Amino acid sequence: MSQSSKCLSILLESEINELYSHPSLTSEQRRHYFSLNDIELDSFIRFKDRYSQLYFVLLLGYFKIKPVILNLTFSQVKDNFKFVASEYFSDNKFKQQNLSRSQKSRIYNRIFNTNHHC
Q1: Of 22, 39, 77, 80, which residue has the fewest beta carbons closer than 10 angstroms?
Q2: pTM for this structure?
Q3: 33: how many CB neighbours lie within 10 A of its CB?
Q4: Is-contact 55 5, C-beta < 8 A?
Q5: Residue 95 and residue 113: Cα distance in Å, rounded?
Q6: Cα–Cα dist 58/60, whole Å
Q7: How far is CA 10 from CA 16, 43, 109, in A?
């Protein structure tokens, strides 16, 4: 018996893809999920660079919809990235790049701590 046949499958591949893919949002949903309450805004301000602030809003919004850690690329979130940049920064010129593993970890730690205090 091979190693892979010993694994228990709880979810179908399509269910895994749905759970861990980025949500598709309407303009109204973007305004709702990417808005910050006072506690979230305090966490947002504590990031030292605008790039981390922007991804904090983006990943927090996705976490509000799906409370899982997503592994996303910039190309997958480009439209929402641009929306958040235009909402929170008057000069919304940002490099189009993926998060590093350490950046993502710091941002998700802040998200977990923010949600813990709500």
Answers
A1: 39
A2: 0.84
A3: 18
A4: no
A5: 27
A6: 6
A7: 10, 35, 27
